[in-house]
Design a protein that fits this description.
This protein is of the alpha/beta class. It is built from 11 helices and 12 strands. The chain folds into 2 domains: about 210 residues, Glycogen Phosphorylase B (Rossmann fold); about 80 residues, Rossmann fold (3-Layer(aba) Sandwich), CATH 3.40.50. The strands form 2 sheets. An 8-stranded parallel sheet has the order 1-8-7-6-5-2-3-4, with helices on both faces. The chain is globular and about 60 Å long.
Length: about 325
């Protein structure tokens, strides 16, 4: 069944005595900030809104934040924690990585942080990322309604992650990829994927809220000077998002793109400009760019297929 966002979210917001305290629990990835326009709209409608995040977003968003994880990415990464705790994950990355990484290594530090935050300041409603099952688990513990806000294709293994996290809390010695009893599907499920791109079996889900994608951009991102459009010379935007990609790969693609047009490239938080070496004069490199502005001007976008970039396109 598919419904409009106002059917459920509006009902939660029908509080006359006080404003609703809405908590958005995001995974620590830039693409996961796609729910911020909804959060900002909720605040404009009178709700008190917070975002549970970790570095580098803490205190760097246009909404108040609370600590969403105990992992410090400047010390270690969730990927490293996953490989250290579960070396056998390498034997079958296809089936083991998701429950090991997102269901345990990422989730347990989130559970610890969110228990502290929400016991001190309990929200009325939680919107959570499917890659952040710790938020669903803590909300359930505290009796807080929680709604899953997806950012990618309907993918049933991600929907089972709260059950993986609960089992890890109760039975820490059990491998996270061990089969679980059939889990209850989260209801409702907010789906921002355009129907033409939705490849998962979403028709099987009993309660879907369709929502139009509205890309979020940091208002503090510096504007990008678009190159003067020379006759018959296209503008190419190159980005590998904020999770994948290396300096070597980015440099290789930039050099290829520079042969056919003027290039604007964004490196994200992990690649430094100095790592790219000398580049042609028709290449402009930025850490972040106002995505929509650049995409509207570009003739070609070369990217990694990440949901943040795909949904913004």
């Amino acid at each position: 069944m598919q419904r409009q966002p106002c059917d459920r979210l509006g009902a939660v917001g029908d509080h006359q005595e006080a404003s609703v305290h809405l908590l958005c629990a995001a995974a620590r990835v830039w693409a996961r900030l796609s729910r911020l326009p909804l959060a900002e709209a909720a605040r404009a409608a009178g709700a008190r809104v917070q975002v549970a995040v970790g570095h580098p977003f803490d205190d760097n968003l246009p909404l108040p934040t609370v600590p969403g994880t105990d992992v410090d990415p400047t010390v270690t990464s969730v990927s490293d924690l996953t490989r250290e705790r579960f070396p056998a994950v390498a034997d079958d990355m296809r089936t083991r990585w998701i429950p090991a990484c997102f269901g345990v290594a990422h989730a347990l530090p989130a559970v610890a942080a969110l228990r502290r935050a929400w016991r001190a300041d309990r929200p009325d409603l939680v919107l959570y990322d499917p890659a952040n099952p710790g938020a669903a688990v803590v909300a359930n513990e505290l009796g807080i309604p929680a709604i899953l806000f997806s950012v990618f294709h309907y993918f049933p293994p991600m929907l089972d992650l709260p059950a993986v996290t609960r089992r890890a809390l109760e039975h820490p010695d059990v491998d996270p990829w061990r089969q679980l009893p059939e889990a209850t599907k989260p209801r409702p499920y907010i789906d921002p994927m355009p129907a033409a791109l939705q490849a998962g079996p979403i028709a099987d889900h009993p309660d879907v809220i369709r929502i139009r994608t509205v890309p979020w951009e940091d208002p503090l991102t510096e504007p990008v000077a678009l190159p003067h459009r020379r006759l018959a010379r296209p503008l190419v935007y190159v980005t590998f998002g904020t999770v994948v990609g290396t300096a070597e790969l980015l440099r290789e693609v930039i050099l290829e793109a520079a042969q056919i047009g003027d290039v604007i490239a964004s490196t994200g938080p992990t690649v430094r400009r100095a790592q790219l070496g000398n580049l042609p004069d028709n290449v402009a490199v930025h850490r972040f760019v106002p995505t929509r502005t650049v995409m509207e001007a570009a003739d070609l976008v070369v990217h990694h297929g990440g949901m943040g970039t795909t949904l913004a396109d």
